[in-house]
């Protein structure tokens, strides 16, 4: 597996996912604003990976703060954190990581500024390490529900490139493959950024897992023809009732899966569940520019003046989910109760 993001001395390196699969290129971030730009421009994407990038970016920003006392340091750090939170609105892991870094700052209030900077750097490294470990546990928990000979449909990219490593939805697929299950995968192309075609297919080929790419609109046809046994996707934010925000097109898959009696699972760490959000209607959905749809490699695909509606995510109501695969196990419906119980057991 290719590492998604890492420290190199005082700089942050991340795979430039815009250039995959043609070229494996490292994008160097020298300042926290470089990290914000990378998140906004899709150099790095995927909810867990964005959270890791935010934590590292805050550490990088903190290292540049010149302050002789905690009050001055905190004021500047809070400004950087505020900028980071605006990078992308839907993925809750970004806010989760910012809150976690703020908590480290608060507990270090009586420490010298140099020690605070070191603590923030250590915390960002811990978040990366923990994410990889969590993904492995998600994979093991999810692999148990995959049939021995399964045709799995997945959407967008929820693999190592979307996380610190191993992956969520693809982590489940990887774990099943490692257990010797005869798995084959159908990957939606995932317009407009084609993460399924460019990234998911790339990862699975690297792992030696059979994969076939389909256009987004072909999923229903394959389900109707009994060619899909299970659907597994990732998530960018899950409300406390189980409503799930994920890459645009996920909702359509969930409805089609229900119509065709195909189990539909979401794989995500507990940090992706936002207990402060009551339901999916309260999850902000990022709207992106028309150019992502209408222009490819500098060429207009249609009339130059045609507008495009480009929501980056959609909301899948909890009633369409068969379960949520987490590091603590598979959360089953009814989600209002079982999600709360999962969080209670984590805090115990």
Number of helices: 11
Name the helicity range. 40-55%
CATH architecture of the largest domain: 3-Layer(aba) Sandwich
How many distinct beta strands?
16
Q: Regarding CATH, which class of the largest domain?
A: Alpha Beta
Beta strand %: 15-25%
Q: What's the oligomerization state?
A: single chain
CATH topology of the largest domain: Rossmann fold
What is the string of helix and strand elements? EEEHHHHHEHEHEHEEEHEEHEEEEEH
Q: Into how many domains do the coordinates divide?
A: 2
- Main sheet characteristics: 7 strands, mixed
Which class best fits the helix and strand makeup? alpha/beta
Strand order of the largest sheet: 6-5-4-7-10-15-16
pLDDT below 50 for ≥5 consecutive residues: which ranges? none
Mean pLDDT across all residues, rounded?
96
For CATH, the homologous superfamily of the largest domain is named as Translation initiation factor eif-2b, domain 2
């Amino acid at each position: 597996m290719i590492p998604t993001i890492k420290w190199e001395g005082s700089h942050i390196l991340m795979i430039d996912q815009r250039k995959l699969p043609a070229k494996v290129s490292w994008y160097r971030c020298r300042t926290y604003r470089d990290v914000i730009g990378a998140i906004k421009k899709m150099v790095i994407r995927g909810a867990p990976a964005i959270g890791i990038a935010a934590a590292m970016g805050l550490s990088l920003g903190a290292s540049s703060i010149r302050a002789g006392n905690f009050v001055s340091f905190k004021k500047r750090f809070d400004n950087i954190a505020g900028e980071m939170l605006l990078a992308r609105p839907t993925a809750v892991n970004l806010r989760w990581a910012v809150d976690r870094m703020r908590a480290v700052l608060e507990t270090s209030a009586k420490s010298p500024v140099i020690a605070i900077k070191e603590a923030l750097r250590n915390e960002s490294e811990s978040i990366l390490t923990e994410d990889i470990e969590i993904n492995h546990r998600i994979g093991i928990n999810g692999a148990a529900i995959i049939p021995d000979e399964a045709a799995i449909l997945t959407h967008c990219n929820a693999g190592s490139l979307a996380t610190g490593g191993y992956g969520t939805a693809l982590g489940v697929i990887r774990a099943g493959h490692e257990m010797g299950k005869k798995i084959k995968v159908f990957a939606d192309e995932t317009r407009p950024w084609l993460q399924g075609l460019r990234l998911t297919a790339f990862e699975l080929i690297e792992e030696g897992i059979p994969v076939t790419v389909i256009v987004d609109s072909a999923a229903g046809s394959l389900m109707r023809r009994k060619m899909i046994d299970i659907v597994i996707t990732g998530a960018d934010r899950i409300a406390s009732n189980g409503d799930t925000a994920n890459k645009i097109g996920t909702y359509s898959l969930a409805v089609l899966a229900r119509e065709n009696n195909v189990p539909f699972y979401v794989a995500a760490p507990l940090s992706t569940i936002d207990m402060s959000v009551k339901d999916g209607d309260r999850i902000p959905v990022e709207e992106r520019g028309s150019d992502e749809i209408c222009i490819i490699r500098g060429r207009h695909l249609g009339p130059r003046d045609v507008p495009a509606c480009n929501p980056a995510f959609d909301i899948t109501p909890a009633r369409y989910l068969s379960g949520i695969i987490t590091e603590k196990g598979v959360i089953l419906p009814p989600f209002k109760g079982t999600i709360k119980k999962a969080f209670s057991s984590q805090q115990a």
